[in-house]
Amino acid sequence: MPEDIKEEDKKNEDQVKRQKKWPATVVLAAPFFLIVIPFYKAAKEALNWPAAIAMIITFEILMFACEIMSVSRGHWVWNPNRTLGPTILGVPIEEPLLYYWFPPLFVVLLMLVIEGYIKKRSDKNG
User: Fold this and answer.
1) Which one, of 55, 43, 70, 69, lies nearest residue 100 by Cα?
2) How far is CA 124 from CA 51, 111, 117, in A?
3) Would you say 46 and 108 are in contact if contact means Cβ atoms under 8 Å apart?
4) Which one of 35, 93, 102, 125 is least enclosed by Cβ atoms within 10 Å?
5) Contact, 78 vs 9, CB < 8 A?
6) Which residues lie closer than 8 Å to 37 by C-beta, 6 or more apart?
7) What number of other Cβ atoms are within 10 A of residue 67's Cβ?
8) pLDDT at 118 (0 to 100)
9) How far apart are CA 95 and CA 71, in angstroms?
């Protein structure tokens, strides 16, 4: 049984080595950056930057700790051909630089844009 597992792991490693390098994690996140630009322009006056930075730092610390634990236990893995390459304690560099700060900021901006839209609409009707 362990020999079968080792053979399967070797096949997977060989397949990864034959794949062409393509940083999918960064490329697939690009459209969200195009969406966040108009959101930022619409909500920049309402955004509380100290609170947003505190939220992002808290999210970064918690998520990075969870990610390190998941990687060390083998629950979370990446195809090295689909990441930029450099890692921090086994976590690809784009995770803390891209995915930990962007989603919470995106959600706050989205909330502020919706709140501004509702406020404008109620002012017109009111």
Assistant:
1) 55
2) 30, 20, 11
3) no
4) 125
5) no
6) none
7) 21
8) 93
9) 12
The size of the chain, in residues, is 126
Task: Compute the distance between CA of residue 117 and CA of residue 77 in angstroms, rounded to an integer.
Answer: 41
* Alpha-carbon span 58 to 55, nearest angstrom: 5
Tokens at 7, concatenated: 């053979």
Q: Hey, what are 96's tokens?
A: 């803390």
Provide the Cα torsion 67, 47, 107, 54; round to 10°: 20
Instruction: Write down the pLDDT at residue 3.
Output: 62
Instruction: Give residue limits of the domains in the chain.
Output: 22-125
How deeply is 104 buried, as exposed, middle or buried, from its count of CB atoms within 10 A (0-12, 13-18, 19+)? Answer: middle
Task: Evaluate whether 94 touches 83 at the Cβ level (below 8 Å).
Answer: yes
* 26-46 b/e (C-beta count within 10 Å ≥ 16 → b): beeeeeeeeeeeebeebbeee
* SS3 letters across 47-95: CCHHHHHHHHHHHHHHHHHHHHHHHHCCCCCCCHHHCCCCEECCEECHH
What is the pLDDT, as a whole number, of residue 28? 76
Report field, pTM of the whole predicted structure over 0.90 = no
